[in-house]
Every structure is written in C-alpha cells, then in structure tokens.
Design brief:
Rossmann fold, single chain, globular, alpha/beta
C-alpha cells in the first residue's frame, strides 16, 4: 500500500498528459510536495503552479540523462524532502514502421534507460530508508505490441521488463514497485494519430484523469500491474495461451484498421 497523503512525489514527464494528471491527483490527495519534472521548463512550471495547496515544484531535467537525473535527485532530497514516490513516466512517440536510428535512440533513452537511471539514483536512497515506491509507466504495447511502430513497441517491452526485474530483486524490502500499462489515452502523444492507427482501433481512448484514478486505486491496493484498460489482461492471457492465434488476430485487426 502506498500512502500519498503527506508524501513527496516526483513525476517525470509531468508537464502534460498522464504525468500532469498524476501530479494533480497526488496534490488532491494531499501530498506534501509534488515535483513536476519535464524537459519543458515552462510547461512544467504551469502545471506545478496550478496544483492546489501550493504543493507543486517545477524542475527541468532530462530523465534520460544520467548527470541531470543524479543532480535532480540530490536537489529534490535536500531541498524538498526524501522521495516517497517516484513516477518514471516520461515517454516519446516514434516514427512508423521500423523507424530510423533517431527513433530507436529516443525511445531507448526514455522507455528503458530513464528507468534504469531512476533505479540507479533514487532506489538506493529508498532502500536505505526501507520505504518508498517506484512506478514505471510502460504501455499495453509493452505487454502486447503496437503494430504501427517497432521502436515504441519494443522499448515499451523493455519498460515492463525492468519494472518486473526490480520487483523481483527488491520486492521483499520496504520499497514497492508498479508498472502502469494503459492502452489508448487522450494525450498529446496520440493527437494527430491517423484514422488507421492500431491504438485507436484497439479500443476506447480514455482521459488521463481516468488513468490517474486507476493508479491511485492500484497504489492503495499494492498492485504491481496497473491496467486502466482492464481488457488488456485478457488480451495478454490470449497472447500467452496461443501465440500463433494471437498473431493472426493482430494481423486481422491491423487489416481492418487500414480498411
């Protein structure tokens, strides 16, 4: 169970979308402080300033850059307080198909390496205190796939894998772990998606506030896997139960989306 009330929470990628919704929800739950972290300093400040109770603090840093993450963690712990909840949430879209090298590099930095950096620089402090929680935002694409873009699908699998590895390695300590895997969410990342988008074809697109509600319920229950779209659990069972049948179904879904 994660108690958000009176906690120091950090949300990377907090300037928009799911990150901004999480920041607002943590503030509403009376967190002691909510650090809105993002590479976009102005937008992070806008979100932080809008949080109720004056609990917001904006901080600009790149979640995929080790020096910046190390410095940010030190500044937060010394200036704001010991981190109780770190949401490793920053993410990026990628180009279609196999993408190019730049797509792979961007996705790797934020969907895998950023979580490693959080574990490297935040987790030891939590373990020393024997308390805290690290939540990694992955995607339903990390449990299933995203048929339109390989860099996104593959690296989101990496997000799930590092979250599972950390939970196995440290889950018997006082530190908790969770992995957020939404399907379609109405965020800037999905804005402008083509009509034949696999994500749009997969099911309902929900508001980020609904994702934040699901996160709060899962944190209260101590659940590792957070599924704002509950049907994803059944999709994953079908994938594991008969991979060939699942692959054929995914090809049919993509064909229908493309008309």
């Amino acid at each position: 169970m994660v108690e958000v009330r009176d906690a120091v929470a950090v949300v990377t990628g907090g300037a928009s979308g799911i990150g901004a919704a999480l920041a607002h929800r943590f503030a509403a739950e009376q967190a002691a402080a909510v650090v809105v972290a993002d590479v976009d300093a102005d937008r992070a400040a806008g979100v932080a300033d809008a949080l109720p109770g004056g609990v917001g603090t904006a901080m600009a840093f790149d979640a995929g850059d080790e020096a910046q993450v190390a410095d940010a963690v030190t500044r937060i712990e010394s200036g704001v307080g010991p981190v109780d909840l770190w949401c490793s949430n920053a993410g990026v879209a990628s180009g279609p198909g196999l993408g190019d090298d730049a797509d792979w590099q961007r996705c790797w930095r934020l969907h895998v390496h950023a979580h490693v950096l959080a574990a490297r620089h935040v987790l030891p402090r939590m373990l020393a205190r024997d308390r805290g929680h690290l939540m990694i935002t992955a995607s339903a694409a990390g449990l299933l796939t995203e048929a339109d873009t390989a860099p996104y699908a593959v690296t989101k699998h990496g997000s799930v894998a590092i979250a599972e590895w950390l939970a196995i390695r440290h889950g018997d300590t006082g530190v908790g772990f969770s992995c957020l895997c939404p399907q379609g969410v109405a965020t800037p990342m999905l804005t402008g998606a083509p009509d034949d988008s696999a994500t749009l074809a997969a099911g309902e697109v929900i508001p980020p506030e609904q994702v934040a509600d699901t996160v709060m319920a899962a944190l209260a229950d101590g659940r590792f896997l957070i599924l704002p779209h509950p049907e994803v659990a059944e999709y994953e069972r079908r994938r594991a139960g008969d991979r060939d049948r699942w692959l054929a179904a995914m090809r049919r879904l993509r064909a229908r989306a493309r008309g």
